[in-house]
Amino acid sequence: MNSELQRYVQLTTWIRELSTPKIKGTSTAEDYREDLLRSFMRIGELAKINQTILNEHLYPLLDPNKDLTEEEMQTMREFCDVLMDPIAMENLDLPMIFVQAERMLKESEKKNDFRLKLITLDMMVISAYPLSNMAQRLFPSFDITFQYRDKGIEAAQKIIEYLEPEKFAQLPDDFSKEIVLINSRYISALFDWSDKEDSAPYCQRDMAMMERSLALADDPFYLEQAPNYDWKYHKFRTLQYITCFTEFNNTSGYTHDQLVKISAYTKQFIDFLHNEIPEMQEECTLETQELYLLRNCYFANEISKEEYREGLRKLFDRRKINMYQSWTMYTNFAVPYEYSFTIDRNNITKEDIELLSTFYREMVSYIYHLPKLGVLSFVLTFLSDILRNYIELPSCPSFKTTCLNLMAALHQPTYVHTLSVADFTVCLTKHLLDKDPEKFVGVLDTTSVDEVLEKRDEIIDNAMNSALLHDIGKLFVMETIITYERKLFSSEFFNIQAHPVVGAKLLEQYDSTRAYASAALGHHRWYDNSDGYPESFDMNSSKDKTIISILTVADCLDASTDSVGRNYKEGKTFEQYLGELEEGKGTRYAPYLVDLLQDPNVKSDIENLLNTARDDNYRKTYMLLKQL
Length: 628
Prior knowledge:
Number of helices: 30
CATH superfamily of the domain at 404-626: Hypothetical protein af1432
Radius of gyration: 27 Å
Strand content: under 5%
Oligomer: single chain
Strand order of the largest sheet: 1-2
Distance between the termini: 40 Å
CATH topology of the domain at 404-626: Hypothetical protein af1432
Structural class: mainly alpha
CATH architecture of the domain at 404-626: Orthogonal Bundle
CATH class of the domain at 404-626: Mainly Alpha
Helix content: 55-70%
Largest sheet: 2 strands, antiparallel
């Protein structure tokens, strides 16, 4: 591979490590802050090098008007291979792979190069699946979710057209045949979820596709045509995919008859694994096999709900909290997640409380200690569903606490930013309550200034929690948040801009956080509704407009003046930020808040916070992470 692109991979791996530094055993809070600052200064330097590498060695190849040489195509293929390991479920840059695959597909069609076309179609399928999963976390109402999925399905369908015997026999080499056979089973993964309400035809189609792929391993024609293909591995993977149809509490909606069939295939899978391909048990652990069997026997009504629950509890007791292989991670997250769906929320047992409480606490620590960020997409797929189905109990961590702790574990600069925004928000809220309480009429359903004054403490608390939770949607797009090594693609900007909607939908699900949802939704919308996102949010009709306006000012204040994790350079001064406020007065920012910040007392308090609060927040972050 091109040596400079190889260097890019090495530097990107380093950047990802620097973006989530771990606390050293003997370090202090001050050491931690300095380490974080040095890390992001270094990220800035490395990102410049990486950008130069891409500008000189990759981006010119993406020009659709350029004719690519064989050597250039080979460079792109090798670069994509290094960026992702689909077997280990690790990746370094999925969007980068997808963009290159689209470019190479067009080039292969232009050159009428069949083998290259097949390779690039396969590359599109491999990258489309995790990208569609990533986009699905943003809730399937977003078109980009289906764009990834649909392009992946289209590519896979073009590949498996060559399963027809006449076309298969004409494939030029073993490698081409291998791509077609692999995609005969892999295409099903792209249909894991659908925007259609009626799931029956989709489940039926998935089952038919996988049974067709499974039958290939016993078909004399295909065995003769592809004698060097690893048919045992093919059968292992195909059976495994079928056992996973019921993941996430059978959200796909398989019928009872289909579930009975899936259970039978699960038993066949385990028998085949032990007798025919035992070396794969290092990857598919005994605990994973037991989870498959328990879940599918339960859904097929072959064991009782209590037997299922007891089996899951025993599996949870055998969890390996210090191991980070892909299938160990799978059981660490999937077992308690599946267990949560068996809980009767009107009759919660002591065992339920103990398991959930332990899981929610350990989950944060487990994620913080992940040794490789390449598995982040895999972990976030489970995490997003866990948060959307969170069970709040008095003795368990609250939903708010868990989300904030996860933010600290995944990306410390975002967590510090959240704490600092809360400090600024509380400060501005208190001053505005003193100076112009009428602005808060409507907040917390108040109808008069007297009610506002009576609820002063509640309003301040509401403002503080709105600030603490305003960026909670970023948990679902963390791979994009930590992409410091290059400029973002348009699809990634879309992901970032989705975080207010994602956060609001998440907060709306729980009684304890519902009051803060509108602030999360509106904090990037302009005061006069003329710009910002999401466009669907109407600032003028929101009863929380004042809280949101304060939050917007506080959010931009911290982003502008911070040096760590934001700009990789010295932040702006407070006076420079006040100049920005003046420029956006009445459009982006509420004019009364711009005026408020000119008050000497307010300016003094904000400057004190800038001098002390952020350091305090680094100490708070340090103390939290020290406990994980």
